[in-house]
Amino acid sequence: MIDTLTQNNLKEIILYEPLTGLFYWKVWKSGRRMHIPIGTKTGSGYLVTTINYKQYSLHRLAFLYMEGAFPPEQVDHIDNNKLNNCWDNLRHANMYQNAQNKPIGLSNTSGVKGVCWDKHNNRWKASIDYNGKVKHVGLFKDKKDAIDAIIEFRNKKHLEFANYN
Predict the structure, then answer these.
(1) Residues 136, 118: contact at Cβ < 8 Å?
(2) pTM for the complete prediction?
(3) Which residues lie below 8 Å from residue 86, measured CB to CB, with a gap of 6+?
(4) How many CB atoms lie within 10 A of CB 98?
(5) Position with higher pLDDT, 23 vs 34
């Protein structure tokens, strides 16, 4: 039994296809289906598998497979699709960066993250979470101006993790 999963151990038992993001068992064991992609969807929407009685997220296994080590912090799915484990859709991220790329909230009515109608001021408000605090970008009569301001701010502060919707 493997105590610590290494890249070599993983490559002996699993095949990862970086272009499709799919994983397949290479070694037969009772209950394993050899030609069907690996992965059980969790309640949080990620795909996982069990190796030697320990559960692993497939997006983290992709890093072990490709780079030889698990990511030190988090993995960001660039397109926000938790089932898309294609190598070019995964990137290293810290907790803050990963949160910047989260999709728009269900209660959002403007269509753009960080823009909402402020009833008190009768204006469109642009604000974002930045460094753990809410950063007020501005109040605007025109929705388009609020959207432009939030996009500019996100591009400047969130860089490649900027996500608007």
Answers:
(1) no
(2) 0.75
(3) 18, 19, 20, 21
(4) 17
(5) 23
